[in-house]
Structure to design on (201 residues):
């Protein structure tokens, strides 16, 4: 696998259930808790200079369950917790839209950025000069896998969050299947590193 021109391969991460505990809507700052090993896994990619980008559906914002200020606070807390382990993410992209949103500006039927649509990945690719076709998408929902596949990236299902249930009950009926199933984010990074690290030597 080679870089396309000067573009870089990246690792795209779903947030809830992949980086932090899946608690439904994070409607209070206290509900954001990193999963064991997640920060160290991200730090490992950082040391290889692999771009790490969070892409997250946040329809709770559009549904009026929490304000945008709280979402900003959650991401600030995530940055602090990651930094304590020498880790960081290179970008955070989120979709607030939903067809049933109560906040008018977020009420959209087809916004193009809500996963499995690939709008967030395309925005990140443009901002950070990334090559989607040589990148990886990691998440705990089938919508993450479909998003990665539509973007041309390889997709990994983690069994944290909704992952174990999705694998058992959702996956068998799906045409799109993961390129790899990992117990958690550290295991996903174990699988990714040998495939992506030659690009960064």
């Amino acid at each position: 696998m080679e870089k396309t021109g000067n573009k870089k391969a990246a690792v795209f991460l779903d947030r809830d259930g992949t980086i932090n505990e899946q608690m439904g809507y994070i409607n209070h700052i206290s509900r954001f808790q990193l999963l064991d090993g997640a920060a160290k896994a991200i730090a490992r990619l950082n040391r290889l200079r692999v771009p790490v980008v969070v892409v997250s559906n946040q329809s709770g914002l559009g549904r009026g369950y929490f304000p945008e200020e709280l979402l900003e606070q959650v991401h600030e807390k995530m940055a602090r917790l990651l930094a304590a382990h020498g880790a960081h993410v290179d970008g955070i992209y989120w979709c607030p839209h939903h067809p049933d949103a109560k906040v008018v500006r977020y009420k959209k039927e087809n916004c193009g950025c809500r996963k499995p649509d690939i709008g967030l990945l395309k925005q990140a690719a443009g901002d950070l000069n990334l090559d989607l076709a040589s990148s990886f998408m990691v998440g705990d929902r089938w919508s993450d896998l479909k998003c990665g596949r539509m973007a041309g990236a390889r997709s990994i299902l983690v069994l944290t969050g909704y992952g174990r249930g999705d694998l058992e009950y959702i996956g068998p009926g799906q045409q799109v299947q993961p390129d790899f199933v990992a117990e958690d984010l550290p295991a996903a990074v174990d699988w990714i590193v040998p495939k992506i690290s030659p690009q960064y030597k």
Summary: Helices lie at 38-47, 59-62, 68-83, 119-128, 142-151, 163-170, 185-196.
